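Notes from hallway chat w/ T.B., transcribed later so I don't forget. T.B. wanted the structure written out for a chain they're using in a teaching module, and asked if we could keep both sequence and structure tokens in one place. Agreed to drop them here.
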Amino acid sequence: MKREFSLATLAGLGSGALLAGALFFQYGMGLAPCQLCIEQRWPHLAALLIGILVFFVPNRLLMALGALAAATSGGLGIFHTGVERGWWEGPTACSGTADISTLSPSAALDAIMAAPVVRCTDVAWEMLGLSMASWNAIFSFALAALWIVAMRRKA
């Protein structure tokens, strides 16, 4: 069986590039990620691994899973963008929306100490008016489309 560098492999490597970019912003530029930022990374890791697997075992089902992984990260990016812009509330653990007024002083202190340093509502970096979460959504959906094109070509 001849192995070929396909669009699916390219899509998987695209997810790897987005993941590498996120790690660069974290470790190279010192921008700590919030909970939602980290959740957007896991589907890209899955898509990268699927892309590598598809290089060795070209399979439409694997390509569909790659598309689903990329689209999942895109959906999380849209959700995170909405949280950043105040369109809807995010997880109380990272949005600072928890009501601690009903807690005992020690429970309130525990909640404050357990709260993450980086809030999901804060935009750490943006370009052309779009945050990293927004850019992740755009690129993730483009990669999902690339996975789908690769899958259709395999048919």
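Follow-up for T.B.: The radius of gyration is 18 Å. Might be a good example for the class.
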